[in-house]
Structures are given as structure tokens and as C-alpha cells.
Write the C-alpha cells for this entry.
Amino acid sequence: MPGPDRRQPASGAPTASGAPTVSGAPAREPGTPVVVGVDYGTLSGRAVVVRVSDGAELGSAVHDYRHGVMDDVLAATGAPLPPDWALQVPGDYVEVLRQAVPKALAAAGVPALDVIGLGTDVTACTVLPTLADGTPLCELAELADRPHAYVKLWKHHAAQPHADRINALAHERGEPWIGRYGGKISCEWQFAKALQLLEEDPQVYARTERWVEAADWIVWQLTGNYLRNACTDGYKAIRQEGVYPSEDYLAALNPAFAGFVRDKVAAPVGQLGARAGGLTARAAAWTGLPEGIAVSVGNVDAHVTAPAAGAVEPGQMVAIMGTSTCHVMSSDTFAEVPGMCGVVDGGIVAGLWGYEAGQSGVGDIFGWFVNRCVPAAYVDEAAARGVGVHELLTEKASGQPVGQHGLVALDWHSGNRSVLVDHELSGLVVGLTLATRPEDVYRALLEATAFGTRTIVEAFQAAGVPVTELVIAGGLVKNALLMQIYSDVTRLPLSIVASTQGPALGSAIHAAVAAGAYPDVRAAAAAMGRREPAVYTPDESRGAAYDALYAEYRALHDWFGRGGNDVMARLRRIRREASAR
């Protein structure tokens, strides 16, 4: 999830580097059962202490990853990384447990003995190669200089050619699972990244004994048990109705890939909200929590947020907006929605179909513009007024009538996740003149991300999966202009997750279920989740004006994204060839 992290203020101003940030709450009665949720984002991890009875958040702390995102150079050697790479260091995740959890506990004023459960979530698909005991390959001295030995973050997009082959072969063979992923597997998902590993560094692939989603690796470290969670296994590892792609299919991709599932993937699968195990003595020492408390099965930041919002019923689409956006919703209707990231039975809550879609760049795009494209005069003005550059641009853009800037943009600076599922695509702004101002471009980029969400909503509606409410979570909810644009563009009421820490709260809800405080996630969500309904409602006149801009967006969307002109892919190839010289 480069740009404002979803744990940063909507302005994009970063939290203090390195040191954890803590916040507390009013005093509480002693002996009240509480749970801890830990949310691993793109740039940092957050821990929150939550009261089991009503979901009240009693204290929290944030810890920034020391190595951040490695997308330019490998930290261990300083060696440059190729384009479209994004790596992380798994030891940074353990530091979140060591730093943020004890500080959140202290901020809450909660005795450790009151904690009955711990839950975690991670951005996905974030995956790493390990030994059979869970040791990350990058922690082996002889492999520390090998980029493929590290965690591949969700926005590692260098496996696009491998995803293209996975998709082409699946359609050629008529594989039954491909339709459940909207017709395309993303380069962000597990199989594309694994195929890239095999073909670019077969030695590291050979040393890989487990190919592990980071969400499952963290639970492994906490409990000593290796389980693959049903969420990422369904959405990111192509597991449908208990079955992965066949060995025959994998061998057709590459003969050496044939044993991938059998040798490196297959493991027990844990259901969402289930108890993965008890906290080990080692992990208890890291966190300051009691040994043996329940640890819930791992999960994804977006999917755990739906219960945090109390939005687990059909028609409620939850958009978790940060550096990227993930759209999730539950439905009693099954459909194969073109361009979706997946549909999984019980993928969010048991008894309903869980759908996922998303946009690979949102806050990252706004951050890129502020960091790379804003003139010094604007930076100086913001500093003189004591506001962030994001706030300044938002203020200047807010007074514009819809369409006054004369621009339309494509929100593909980090590729397109849904509905085109193509990370060779890139950003575009049309209509620039010598009179164009920074706030004009900034507003056009805000609008482009709203148009991307409308495209996703329309795809679901057209497939027979109705969307009646858009529920927003993440730090960007603080930008009122952005929220109103989304409501006007989509013509939907926008509700806001009441918690500023939606994923961490969602993980805490799952921890409460794993600890036995509630019978299932839906019951826990009803008691502990909450949202503010219809905070923003669409304005008809602005909506009509946006319809005209959206028509231009869709024309560009289809021309550049559906084969009318593949200039973006050609430019990517030229860039890669130049970088390899």
C-alpha cells in the first residue's frame, strides 16, 4: 500500500518515523475481558486493545517497519532491484509484536491477564519462501543477497508475464476455476509470484520448503502451528471447493512447477474466526501477553474490516481505502463477475459468498503527485499556513465546479487490479494545458480513483450482485472532498466505519470468536462492529456532471485497457529493456 499509508492522516503526513505512536482511552473496569488485534499494513503495523463486550477501543500503538518497502534497492546489499519489484523483511513484522503490542496494552491501562485472544491480519497477497520450520530464506546467510529469498509484498508486480501465461493456459484448457477469479489471475497472487521465483532463481525455489502467505507466517510465529487461512487460500492461492490447480496444469506451465502444490503449499486450512492455537512462551515474551491465549486463524486486512464495520450482509460493499483500495462484500448470490479478484464460499463470513475486487493504486497515486509533481511554491505555502500539502491541494480543488479543470485521468499508476487485471497498464492524464494548475491535476486524480470504483460497482451490478451501500474504511475517510466525490460518482450513499483502525478492530473481533466469546464472526460483528450510515449522499446535479466525465474515463479505459492500443505495455517493455542494459 510511496504515498500516504492507510495509517497516516488523510493529508498524507507520515507518522513519526521509527518510534511507535500510542493512544489511550478512558479508564475501564478491572477484569473486563479484552482482545488484541494486530494489523500489518504496507508501511507499518498497528496493535489495538478492544473490549470484548462492545468493541470499544481502549488503546493502540503503531510501529513503522524499519526496512519499509524495498522497491529500489535490496537493503542487505544495496544492489538495485528491477522495475516493479516490492520486497519486505519478515523480521520487521516480529518487531511490531515486540513494540506495538506492549505499548498498546500500556496505553489501554489493561492488565495482561485480561487479554483472552489475539488476532492478526496482513495486506495480501504478501508471500514468502521458508524452510519447513518457518525460517524465512532471507534469514539464511547464504541467501541474504538473493532478492527472491525475501517477502514479496502485495504490490510486487514483476510477475505480470507469468500471470499472463497462467491465464492464457487456463482459458486454453478450460480450467473450471478461472471464472471464479473474473477470468484472470493477478500477478499479485501466489502462483504468479511462485512461477517467477522458479524461473528467475531456481536455486532459491529449490530451497523453498514452504510457500507461505505472510498472514499465515505470523500466526505460525505466534502459535508454532502452520495453517493456511481459508481467506488467502481461496482468493490468492486458487483454492476452490478444497482443490488447487492440478499437477497436470502446473506441469504444462513449466515441468519443474508440477510439484508446487504438493511439495510447497499443501497444509491444513483454518477457517476464519477459528482458533489456530495458543500463544507460545516465545511469543508471550515478545508481546507481554499471557501464554496459551487463543490466536485466531490469519486473515486479510480488507476482509476483516467488513465485520469491523458491521457490514457483512448482502449489498454492503466495503472499500478499504489507503495506498490501494480493496473492495469486499458478502452475498447470498453466486456469480462470476468479470475482473473480480475472486469469489469464495465463506471468504468473509460463513454461510455467504465473499467477493473481492480492488484498485492497486489510490493513496499511492495522491502521494506520488504530492512528492514528485508539486512546485516548491505550494510546499512553501502549506508550510507557512501550517497544513500539509494534501490539505492545501484539497482546499484549492474543493471550490471547483465538476469538470472545470478540463481533465480526465486513468488511475493505473500501479496497474489495474479490477476489472482489467493488468499491471502492465499505467497512469494517464488527458487535457493538460499551460493553464493547468497542480490542484486541477490533483482533483482529476481523486476523481479517477472514484471512476475506478464505479467501474467495479457496475461490474457487480451487471453480473447480478447488487450493491446498495458503499462503506468506507481507512485513513482517506478524513478527506471530505474525496468522500463526496465517491458518493456523487457512484450515486451511492457512503457510510463510514466508526473505527479509525478498521482492520485491527476486525482482527480483534476474530480473536474474540477464537477465544469463545461469540459463536461466530457474524454474531461478534453485530456486538463489536459499527459504522456511521450515509455520512455522504450523492448530489444529483454533480452526479450528472460526473456522468459526462465518467463516459470519457470509460472510453479511455476501454481503448487502453481492452486492446484498442497497447502502448502502455510497449512502454513497459522498453523500460525493462533499458533497465537491463
User: Anything to note?
Assistant: Residues 1-19 have pLDDT under 50 and may be disordered. The CA atoms of residues 189 and 236 lie 5 Å apart. The radius of gyration is 22 Å. Residues 25-301 form a domain with the Nucleotidyltransferase; domain 5 fold (CATH 3.30.420.40).
